[in-house]
């Protein structure tokens, strides 16, 4: 069943036509990845789904209902969370305060249990609970950004470049966490420069080139496609 459906969206930055008639879908309990070069429009698509940008035309459907006109802070209530590129944590707040901010749409009585769940999933954050978030390492900040997004209990988790700037061993840890989230029932839409890692965990993939989808299929099919291998997998 389709949880998210994108129908022919066009997104502009002023006169710049950034997204040109993109259509795709994400079914419940899938990991779907968008791969493409820098500037292809991957982050723009996630920000549009999250309500931070508005398409000039086309539709975004969640459970078959249009999200058009719904502000970003209400889209979170529909079960969609974005873990943005560059982490965007609250640098001057503690780890715990960041998590509390992530749960602002929830019943306050549910927050403590959700924080404990986050600490179970990310034990490093438990050790840093009272630490100022801006003093965390890059890997710890990425864990915090993911944990904060999970505080809203999303059905659809959108991850924008979760491995950016991380050492290889930390990349493996982040992808292990993504696998665990998926196994626990969270649907995931993943944007990731590390196409090889993304395709290794995804069910399906779409290739984005200069604002348009040029190719789609199962992750296994695309990982064996010669054009994809040459352009994104370094082989």
Describe the protein in words.
With 235 residues, this protein is of the alpha/beta class. Helix content is 36%, strand content 27%. The strands form two sheets. A six-stranded mixed sheet has the order 6-7-8-3-9-10, with helices on both faces. It is globular.
Summarize the structure.
This protein is α/β, with parallel strands linked by helices and 235 residues long.
What key attributes describe this structure?
10 strands, 2 domains, four-stranded antiparallel sheet, Rossmann fold, alpha/beta
Task: Furnish the topology, listing elements before pairings.
Blueprint: E1 2-13, E2 16-27, E3 31-35, H1 42-49, E4 57-62, E5 65-66, H2 72-75, E6 80-83, H3 95-102, H4 111-121, H5 123-127, H6 138-150, E7 156-160, H7 168-183, E8 187-191, H8 195-201, E9 204-209, E10 212-218, H9 219-223, H10 226-232
Parallel strand pairs: 3-8, 3-9, 6-7, 7-8
Antiparallel strand pairs: 1-2, 1-4, 4-5, 9-10
Helix pairs in contact: 3-6
- Strand arrangement in the largest pleated sheet: 6-7-8-3-9-10
Gap between N and C termini: 35 Å
Percent of residues in helices comes to 25-40%
* CATH class call of the largest domain: Alpha Beta
Q: Got a strand count?
A: 10
């Amino acid at each position: 069943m389709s949880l998210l459906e994108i129908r022919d969206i066009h997104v502009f930055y002023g006169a710049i036509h950034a997204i040109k008639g993109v259509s795709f879908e994400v079914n419940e309990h899938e990991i779907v990845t968008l791969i493409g070069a820098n500037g292809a429009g991957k982050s723009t698509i996630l920000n549009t789904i999250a309500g931070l940008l508005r398409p000039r035309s086309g539709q975004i459907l969640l459970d078959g209902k249009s999200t058009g006109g719904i502000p970003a802070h209400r889209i979170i209530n529909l079960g969609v969370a974005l873990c943005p590129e560059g982490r965007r944590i609250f640098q001057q707040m503690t780890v715990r305060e960041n998590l509390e901010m992530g749960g602002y749409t929830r019943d306050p009585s549910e927050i403590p249990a959700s924080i404990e769940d986050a600490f179970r999933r990310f034990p490093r954050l438990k050790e840093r609970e009272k630490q100022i978030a801006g003093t965390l390492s890059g890997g710890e900040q990425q864990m915090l950004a993911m944990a904060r997004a999970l505080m809203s209990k999303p059905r659809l988790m959108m991850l924008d470049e979760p491995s950016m700037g991380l050492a290889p061993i930390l990349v493996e840890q982040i992808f292990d966490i993504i696998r665990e989230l998926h196994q626990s029932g969270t649907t995931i839409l993943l944007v990731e420069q590390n196409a090889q890692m993304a395709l290794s965990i995804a069910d399906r993939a779409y290739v984005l080139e200069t604002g348009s989808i040029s190719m789609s299929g199962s992750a296994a099919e695309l990982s064996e496609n010669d054009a994809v291998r040459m352009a994104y997998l370094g082989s």
